[in-house]
């Protein structure tokens, strides 16, 4: 059985930057260090950080003093203001691509556009982007949702950085019918596009596809979705412990991809485990 791993599997720039900032903080201070929400959507990495006494807290109210690291997905504007009001030592590890989406949303709002954020309503990144809109904003998850919109004079669009370009295009196309003026910022991270392109390309050449990453990771879930459309034998796992030998019965070629928040050591363990499966 041959095993193939896509070139871009593993940490993206924004995630790697956030993790490095967290470990650097642990080296430089003896004060308590917290992240506002999990720094990235990977439970195993969050557990590793706890070994360096970096703890995730759900709410800013749970952090009384010390250092707070703003997660890679960003936080809502009100939470950032609360952290400043508490005089916490703030380390902003927001991914630069997420920061750009926040800035574009704020710009559109300031210029009088009704703002559409293409993404998942409950995702922390999307909530952070929406918080930068003064008023008149809506989150759309699919082109079907556009039907809910009333026609407006000026409509502006930004996207969750991990969205697929196909979904953004479909929503933009439908929004053309809803506005006299339409302004679109393609805020999808290039790493997301490259990762999806490489993964779907590999999925078309193998008998089984394994997607490795946190079940709470939007970009990993998206990888699993796009791969499954091409290769029905696609499985989303977090660690090697979830692998099942029956998935590989009669399989000659296995493809492996991983979300942007999946560390290399987990990918390596999965690769090794698959190679040791005898079918």
Question: Could you describe the 3D structure shown?
Answer:
The protein is of the alpha/beta class. The chain has three domains: 2-10 and 191-275, 3-Layer(aba) Sandwich (Cobalt-precorrin-4 Transmethylase, domain 1); 13-93, Rossmann fold; 97-188, 4-hydroxy-3-methylbut-2-enyl diphosphate reductase, catalytic domain (Cobalt-precorrin-4 Transmethylase, domain 1, 3-Layer(aba) Sandwich). Helix content is 38%, strand content 21%. It contains nine helices and twelve strands. The strands form three sheets. It has a four-stranded parallel β-sheet, sandwiched between helices. A four-stranded parallel β-sheet has the order 3-2-4-5, with helices on both faces. Strand 10, helix 8 and strand 11 form a beta-alpha-beta unit. It starts with a strand and ends with a helix. The model has no long low-confidence stretch (mean pLDDT 94).
Mean pLDDT over all positions = 94
Strand order of the main beta sheet, please? 1-12-10-11
The structural class is alpha/beta
What fraction of the residues are assigned to beta strands by DSSP?
15-25%
Q: What distance lies between the first and last C-alpha atoms, to the nearest angstrom?
A: 9 Å
Supply the CATH superfamily name of the largest domain: 4-hydroxy-3-methylbut-2-enyl diphosphate reductase, catalytic domain
Order of helices and strands: EHEHEEHEHEHEEHEHEHEEH
Low-confidence sequence ranges = none
Query: What's the CATH architecture name of the largest domain?
Result: 3-Layer(aba) Sandwich
Number of beta strands: 12
Characterize the overall form: flat
How many distinct domains? 3
């Amino acid at each position: 059985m041959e095993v193939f791993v896509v070139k871009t599997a593993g940490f993206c720039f924004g995630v790697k930057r956030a993790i490095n900032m967290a470990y650097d903080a642990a080296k430089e201070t003896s004060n308590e260090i917290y992240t506002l929400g999990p720094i990235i959507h990977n439970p195993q990495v969050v557990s590793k950080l706890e070994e360096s006494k970096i703890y995730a807290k759900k709410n800013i109210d749970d952090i009384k003093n010390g250092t707070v690291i703003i997660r890679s997905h960003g936080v809502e504007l009100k939470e950032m203001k609360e952290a400043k009001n508490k005089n916490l030592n703030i380390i902003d590890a927001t991914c630069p691509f997420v920061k750009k989406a926040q800035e574009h949303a704020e710009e559109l709002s300031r210029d009088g556009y009704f703002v559409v954020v293409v993404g998942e309503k409950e995702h922390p990144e999307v909530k952070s982007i929406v918080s930068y809109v003064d008023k008149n904003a809506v989150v759309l998850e699919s082109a079907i949702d556009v039907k809910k919109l009333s026609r407006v004079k000026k409509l502006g669009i930004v996207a969750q950085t991990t969205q697929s370009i196909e979904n953004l295009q479909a929503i933009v196309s439908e929004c053309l019918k809803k506005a006299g003026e339409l302004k679109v910022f393609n805020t999808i991270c290039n790493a997301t596009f490259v990762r999806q392109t490489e993964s779907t390309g590999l999925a078309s050449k193998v008998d089984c596809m394994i997607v490795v990453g946190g079940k709470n990771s939007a970009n990993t879930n998206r990888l699993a979705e796009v791969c499954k459309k091409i290769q029905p034998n696609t499985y989303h796992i977090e660690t090697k412990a979830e692998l099942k030998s029956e998935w590989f019965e009669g399989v000659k070629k296995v493809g492996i991809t991983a979300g942007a928040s999946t560390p290399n050591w987990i990918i390596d363990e999965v690769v090794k485990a698959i190679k040791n499966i005898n079918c």
